[in-house]
UniProtKB/TrEMBL annotation:
This is Peptidase M48. GO terms for biological process: proteolysis involved in protein catabolic process. Its cofactor is Zn(2+). One of its GO terms (molecular function) is metal ion binding. Pfam families: Peptidase_M48. It comes from Rufibacter radiotolerans.
């Protein structure tokens, strides 16, 4: 079964030769997202989209607007195939965000609380969208776990085994460390995405990394630093990419962003 599967592999929309199809990304993403939802729901930390609380509804409407601005640029290869749903995890002490295969994005309230502008948050979201759109998670899992392991998950018929492996991956996904090349690529795409919105400062991610660097220098490195390379030259690289792209670097209006934070009690 695996031999026939590998033989059918071909390039994807990004020109990558990857051993798993986009359908496998989507399937794995659904399984992992389900496990992540269950984990944070059990802890009472997942803010449900079905909530009747008008503040939660307003917060999701605002977050969706940011994501949709990025997706609508036409720069996201899998904008029609992937879910691109974003969920809020209520953990004020966790400055993190991550994306599963297939475009399921998780943002922690600790991150939102510590960002001063919508450009910075859009920069982070653009970075995570790029990880999913460039299929970095599947590539990294393929390297980390091996082809047979991932094949067992995405092709397996044993529901119990699939659930066990999905849970194993979900438990490590927030801590998955991408290669520096993948991180650099996601930083660059964040600039491209934000620039194409004609709304956000395209170097918004640089402001985010400046904040992370300040916290790191103060001896309180956020969770994001443990799973992403230290800001270091990334700030300068993002600004250099923005200059190369010639895109707008002035900030968007942040009045609504402050209201968004207030709706989350931040």
């Amino acid at each position: 079964m695996l031999t026939g599967f590998l033989a059918s592999c071909s390039g994807d929309k990004n020109g990558n030769q990857i051993l798993f199809s986009v359908d496998e990304d989507i399937k794995l993403g659904q399984q992992v997202s389900s496990e992540v939802d269950s984990t944070y729901r059990a802890k009472g930390q997942l803010l449900e989209r079905s909530s009747s609380d008008p503040r939660v509804k307003a917060a999701y409407a605002h977050l969706d607007k940011i994501v949709n601005r990025i997706i609508a640029t036409g720069k996201v290869s899998y904008r029609d195939e992937f879910a691109w749903d974003v969920k809020i995890v209520n953990d004020p002490n966790n400055l993190n965000a991550f994306a599963t295969p297939g475009g399921h994005i998780y943002v922690f309230t600790g991150l939102i609380k510590n960002l001063d502008t919508e450009d910075e948050l859009a920069g982070v979201l653009g970075h995570e969208i790029a990880h999913a759109d460039q299929r970095h998670t599947m590539k990294q899992l393929q390297k980390q776990y091996g082809i047979a392991f991932i094949s067992k998950l995405v092709l397996g018929d044993n529901a119990g085994e699939v659930e066990r492996i999905a849970g194993q991956i979900a438990g490590q996904l927030a801590g998955l460390k991408f290669s520096r090349d993948y991180e650099r690529e996601s930083d660059d795409f964040s600039v491209v995405y934000l620039g194409a919105t004609n709304y956000y400062a395209c170097d918004g991610a640089a402001g985010f990394f400046q904040k992370m660097q300040t916290l790191e220098n103060q001896g309180t490195p956020p969770e994001f630093i443990s799973t992403h390379p230290s800001p270091g030259n990334r700030i300068q690289d993002i600004k250099a990419e923005a200059q190369k792209q010639g895109c707008k670097t002035s900030s968007a209006n942040n009045t609504q962003y402050q209201a968004f934070k207030q709706n989350l009690g931040l």
